[in-house]
C-alpha cells in the first residue's frame, strides 16, 4: 500500500513567517497560545462537552496544505520550531485525530482532546488549542536541534476520511552548508519548510503504525498502573477504618 501526497507548485520566499519569534511574524503568533494538555488518566466533563460541541464543526471535505507564508524560518538551536500544516477550508480540528511522524518515528498523536507524545519526544511535542479551532494542526516541537531536520508526515482522520501530507524541513544550503550546521545552544539556522511529493512504502507505513501503537500502549499502561495504585490506596484505607 502506498500513500501519494500532493506537491505545491514550488517554494515562495516570505517576508512574514509564523514560524519564529525573531523578525517579522504572522499576526496570529502574537496572540496568547494555549498548549494542549498531555494525555492524562482523567477527563473532565467540560472536556467532553467541548468535544461534543466541536464535533459538529468538523467536515469530511477537507485538504491539508502548507501556508505560503511558512516557507522559510530562522530558528535558534534550542528554541521551538513549528512544522506547518493547515486544514482547508478552515474548519475546527478539535474533534479530529491527528498523527505526526518524523520519518517513521511517532512524534505525537492528538486524540480525544489530548496529546500523546512519542517515546522519543517526551516534553517536546504539542499542538495549540486556539489554533486547532481555526484548522491549524501544525506541530510545535521544542528544543530544536539539527537532528530534527528531515521529513515530517502528518495524518488527519475525520470520520471515514483520512488526509495526509509530507513536510520537508531542510537547512537552506546557500545560507548554511549542512556540513557546517550549528550545534550550540542559541546559534541560528536558516530552514526551508515545504510540501514534498514523497511515496511512503508499505514497510514505512507499517513502522509508523507500530510506533504510534507503542506510544498509545505506554499511555494505557501508565493509566492502568495509576488505577491500580488508586484501588490499592482505597482498599488500604478501608482496611484501616
Describe, in plain words, how this protein is organized in 3D.
Residues 24-34, 42-51 have a biased composition (Basic and acidic residues). There is one protein chain. This protein is an alpha+beta fold and 241 residues long. It is 22% helix and 28% strand. The chain is globular and about 60 Å long. A seven-stranded antiparallel sheet has the order 3-13-12-11-6-7-8, with helices on one face. It has a three-stranded antiparallel sheet with strand order 4-10-9, with no helix packed on it. The chain has a two-stranded antiparallel sheet with strand order 1-14. The chain has three helices and 14 strands. The protein has helices at residues 45-55, 129-132, 202-240, and strands at 3-4, 63-65, 72-76, 81-83, 86-88, 97-102, 105-111, 114-117, 125-126, 139-141, 150-158, 161-171, 188-195, 199-200.
Task: Output the keywords.
241 residues, alpha+beta, 7-stranded antiparallel β-sheet, 3-stranded antiparallel β-sheet, 3 helices, 22% helix, disordered N terminus, Ig_sub, membrane, signaling receptor binding
Amino acid at each position: 500500500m502506498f500513500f501519494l501526497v500532493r506537491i505545491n507548485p514550488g517554494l515562495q520566499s516570505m517576508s512574514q513567517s509564523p514560524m519564529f519569534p525573531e523578525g517579522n511574524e504572522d499576526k496570529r503568533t502574537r496572540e496568547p497560545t494555549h498548549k494542549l494538555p498531555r494525555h492524562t488518566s482523567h477527563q473532565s466533563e467540560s472536556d467532553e462537552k467541548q468535544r461534543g460541541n466541536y464535533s459538529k464543526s468538523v467536515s469530511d471535505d477537507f485538504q491539508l496544505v502548507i501556508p505560503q507564508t511558512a516557507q522559510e524560518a530562522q530558528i535558534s538551536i534550542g528554541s521551538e520550531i513549528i512544522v506547518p500544516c493547515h486544514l482547508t477550508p478552515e474548519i475546527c480540528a478539535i474533534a479530529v485525530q491527528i498523527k505526526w511522524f518524523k520519518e517513521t518515528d511517532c512524534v505525537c498523536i492528538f486524540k480525544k482532546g489530548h496529546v500523546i507524545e512519542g517515546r522519543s519526544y517526551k516534553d517536546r511535542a504539542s499542538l495549540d488549542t486556539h489554533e486547532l479551532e481555526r484548522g491549524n494542526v501544525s506541530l510545535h516541537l521544542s528544543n530544536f536541534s539539527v537532528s530534527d531536520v528531515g521529513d515530517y508526515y502528518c495524518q488527519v482522520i475525520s470520520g471515514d476520511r483520512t488526509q495526509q501530507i509530507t513536510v520537508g524541513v531542510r537547512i537552506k544550503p546557500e545560507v548554511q552548508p549542512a556540513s557546517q550546521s550549528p550545534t550550540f545552544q542559541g546559534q541560528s539556522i536558516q530552514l526551508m519548510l515545504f510540501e514534498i511529493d514523497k511515496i511512503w512504502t508499505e514497510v514505512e507505513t507499517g513502522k509508523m503504525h507500530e510506533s504510534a501503537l507503542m506510544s498509545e500502549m505506554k499511555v494505557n499502561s501508565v493509566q492502568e498502573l495509576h488505577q491500580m495504585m488508586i484501588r490499592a490506596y482505597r482498599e488500604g484505607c478501608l482496611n484501616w477504618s
